[in-house]
Each structure stands twice: as C-alpha cells, then as structure tokens.
Design brief:
29% helix; 381 residues; 4 domains; 22 strands; alpha+beta; elongated; Elongation Factor Tu (Ef-tu), domain 3; OB fold (Dihydrolipoamide Acetyltransferase, E2P); single chain
Length: 381
C-alpha cells in the first residue's frame, strides 16, 4: 500500500515540474501591459444637472391648537331647567345651550315694572301740585316755602322713577342670564351639568361645557434660529408664506394655510423660533392637539442648478457630487446645498448646468476613478 502512495506522489511532482518547464514565465512586457490597462472601470449611471426655480422650504413638526376656547359658566345662581344641546355638537355663536329656572326673576321684573308705573303716577301728582303752587304764588295767595317744597317733591318723584327704571333694567339683564348661549362658534365638549342641577357663580368647578373653535385653527411649530432671516423676509412679503400641514408620518396633505406669527424672541436653550400658521380648516381636517408634519415655503431660488437628491454624497468637508469627466473618470466636487426637497436638490455653488453627475454606483468610486456608463440618463431633474 505504501508503495502505491509513494508512486502517486512521484507522479504528481513530475507533472508539476513539467508544467513549470512548459508554461512561459511572465515577462516585463506582459507586466507593463497590465499596469497600462489599470483597474477595471466602475459601472455608474449619470444625469445632466438642470436649472429651475426652486421653492425654499423648511420642514418641522407642529401641533394644532384652537384660536379660541371658552368655558361656559352661569352668570347667576340658579337651577338648570332645560338642556338644548348634546355633547360633541357643533354650534354657532348665539345658539341656545341651557335655560335656567327664570320664575323668580320674571316676578322681580314684574314688580319692577309696577314700581315704575307707581312712581310715574307720583310724578304726575307732584307735577300738578307744583303747577297749583306756582299759580297761587302768582296770585299772591301762596307762600314761597310751599312752592319750594312742591319743586323738591317733584324732583324726588322723578328720581324715584329713574331708580325704578334702573332696577328694572338690571333685573331684565339678570333675566337674560337665564338663557345661556354659545359665546363663539365651535364644537362642544363634555357637558358637566344636566337639568335639575344647581349652579353657582362663585363655584370654581361650575363650567357647564367648553366650546372649542375649530375654524379657523392655528398650527404651532418651531424652526432653527438659522432660518430667522428667511422667516422675517417671508413676514414682510405682501403675500403670506404658505404652510402645508400633513398627517403625521405620511404625505397626506390635510390643509394649507398662511404664516401668521413669529415669536419675538429666540428660545435660548433650544435655539429655535416659535412660529404659527393660520388655517381656515374647512372641512375640519385639523383637530386641536393633533400633531402634524409642517412644510413652510419661505421664498424662491430662481435659476438654481438642480440635481437628483441621490447624487449628493456626504464627506468630511460637507456635501459633494461625483462629476463625470470627458476622459471617463470622476471628480469629487464640493457643492453648497440650498434646498433638498421632493428628491431634487438645489445648489448655489460647485456645479454648472449640463454637467454630468453620478446618481448610481457612488459606493465604488473615489476621486479619479475610471467609470463606464451602464444606463446613461440625460434627463434633467
């Protein structure tokens, strides 16, 4: 057995030696040819840089809040007699919400009206007495003292009428408080008191219901301090800057409104500025307390050089793009990005229109690398 193994090894050694003798050795000419050929070209896809007017937009996260929210209370002590609305109902300003027991106040108004009539009759009597006293004095049959008393009595009677009318007006106002109406248009919250319950003016927990205004509605969000100049320019423009609210985490546009407020100070800890936008909110697609994604347009970049967002690469010194050169190599070109939205990046420097930029295959590239086009794309973004 050992003899066969030894024979097999000898045959293998002899075959290898014969191969080395027969195979030609690599000469200097072949090595030079390989060095001249260089590394293989990397397959890439390119696109021509375009030029367009690009909107300057900023993204943020905000929340919707009502312009007005009113807690409805009773303005006098009483008992709820009737409820005219339901929880969650949408109401208009002036709609009847509750009615309080008004029997006592109606009786007071009736008494006040009677007092006015009584004192008006007294005024008529005192006026007649005054006329008689004047006549007597003119004829020499009356005294000045009696005339002065008649004048005073008429004045007192007139004052009593005015006091009665003031009391009547006050009780009529209080009677009006027995009908509780919606102070603003909006949606009702939870109703906390039902017919039969007593309500008191000074009770801290006497809210009957809350009315929340849904239209218009505000969205509050923040932007970095570096965007303050853009915000200020947008606020000065004749046409308000447009703000679009999207459902959180989606591209579903809920509403478009106008920039309405920029806070008067930068928040120092966060380095942000609070901003508000006003939306008509018809129909009610925005809801108080709802979180939304916000896109605000703060101006335009006219004639900007544009490339697909996928062409941008991040380096230690900032963003750059690979530019395809005429000799089928690439150059790493630093660029300054002004906007990067919806798959299109607008550049303010570093690239010219119609230059070829690499959009696929960047991971295999380095400055000066050889390239070959796999699917040339000349359409501008």
């Amino acid at each position: 057995m050992k003899r066969y193994v030894i024979i097999a090894l000898l045959v293998a050694v002899a075959a290898f030696a014969a191969y080395r003798v027969i195979r030609p050795q690599d000469g200097p000419e072949q090595a030079h040819a390989e060095r001249r050929a260089g590394p293989l070209a990397a397959p890439v896809t390119t696109v021509l840089a375009g030029r367009a007017d690009i909107p300057v937009t900023r993204r943020s996260i905000g929340f919707a809040e009502p312009v007005a929210i009113v807690a409805v209370k009773s303005r006098l002590d009483g008992v709820i007699a009737d409820q005219h609305v339901k929880e969650g109902q949408e109401v208009k300003q002036g709609d009847l919400l509750f009615t309080l027991d008004d029997r006592e106040l109606k009786a007071q108004v009736a008494r006040d009206e009677a007092n006015v009539e009584r004192d008006k009759a007294t005024v008529a009597q005192k006026r007649a007495d005054l006329a008689r006293q004047k006549s007597l004095v003119d004829k020499g049959a009356g005294t000045q003292q009696a005339l002065d008393q008649a004048i005073a009595d008429e004045a007192v009677a007139n004052a009593a009428v005015k006091a009665d009318e003031a009391t009547l007006a006050l009780d009529r106002v209080r009677l009006g408080y027995t009908t509780i109406t919606a102070p603003i248009s909006g949606r009702l919250g939870a109703i906390t008191a039902t017919p039969g319950n007593a309500v008191r003016v000074n009770d801290a927990n006497s809210n009957l219901v809350t009315v929340t205004q849904l239209a218009p509605i505000r969205v509050t969000f923040t932007l970095p301090e570096r965007d303050l100049a853009l915000l200020q320019e947008a606020a000065k423009a004749q046409t308000p800057a447009k703000v679009t609210a999207f459902a959180s985490g989606t591209r579903e546009a809920l509403a478009t409104g106008d920039l309405s407020f920029i806070d008067s100070a930068v928040d120092i800890p966060s380095g942000t500025v609070s901003v508000k936008a006003l939306f008509t909110n018809e129909p009610h697609r925005l809801w108080p307390g709802q979180y939304v994604d916000v896109v605000v347009q703060l101006g335009m970049l006219p004639g900007s050089v544009t490339v697909p967002s996928v062409a941008l690469q991040e380096g230690q010194k900032g963003p750059f793009v690979y530019v395809a050169k005429a000799d089928d190599t690439v150059e790493a070109r630093p660029v300054k990005v002004a906007s990067n939205e919806n798959g299109v990046a607008a550049l303010t420097s570093g690239l010219s229109q119609d230059e070829k930029v690499v959009t696929e295959g960047q991971s295999r590239l380095a400055p000066g690398a050889r390239i070959r086009l796999t699917a040339p794309q000349t359409t501008k973004p």
